[in-house]
Amino acid sequence: MDNMKFAVIGGDMRQAKLAELLYIDGHQVSTFAIDEIENLVGVHRAESPMQAIDGAGCVVLPLPIVSAPGVLSTPLGRDTHELEGILSVLRSDQMITGGMIDSATYDMARRLGLSISDYYAREELVVSNAAATAEGAIKIAMDETPITLLGSKCLVIGFGRIGKILAHRLKGMGAVVAASGRSHSDRAWIDAYGYTALNTNSLEGHLRNFDIIFNTAPARILSKERLKEILSNCLIIDLSSKPGGMDFIAAGNLGLRAVWALSLPGKVAPVTSGIVIKNTIYNMLLEQGL
Which of 46, 103, 120, 171 pairs as cysteine with 52 (C-beta 3.0–4.6 A)? Predict the structure, then answer.
């Protein structure tokens, strides 16, 4: 891929490392709204979105793209930026990409005559992201419990990408693993892998049996009534995106230990995550002939 200019706008440590990695590969890189990292190697810090995107062939927006409806995600920024204000200075001839793009953002881009693509929808990124999330979840479990994973009784709710990798890692560390799925096929795979198979829709009567419960399902699975079954010495780790998979207020009132572990790849493996995002964007550029 020939030298080109990238603009990296907003985001967390993943995007900060991405900017450095792009420079190391020989590209020109400008950033905006990544203010809290003092020394980004070879990267030009722009004072405005317009300055950042000047001459850029590719504009990289955060993962997730918004922190609230219409607000650019800028955990490393000093100011709040409306997404429309960012998109309004972009050009239709630029490749514009972000992560976990919501329908309102797609509509906004279309209204502005822009095409935007979601790098988080790419399978190569999602699988790598799931692996980093699973490792981060295991780190939390090891830090927050007084027991070893060896011999611990663990439940993984949901058997998607993260659930599959997490269950595999836990079993490899000697945990006694149960996993739940909604579909017959998921439960058949859970059984085939040698885990105890449960139905996500009917967890009642099973939840008191575990030392650690990991929720990966993007739905409110752990309601107040289900939380009442869980013993006070059980650690609950919710890996699902907002609005989360459990009633955290009820968990607090019940005296349960609960951790909502959002954006783990950016926290536990920002360099690896930056590499994965970079390679995914390169694939997207190549597919577009750029």
Answer: 46
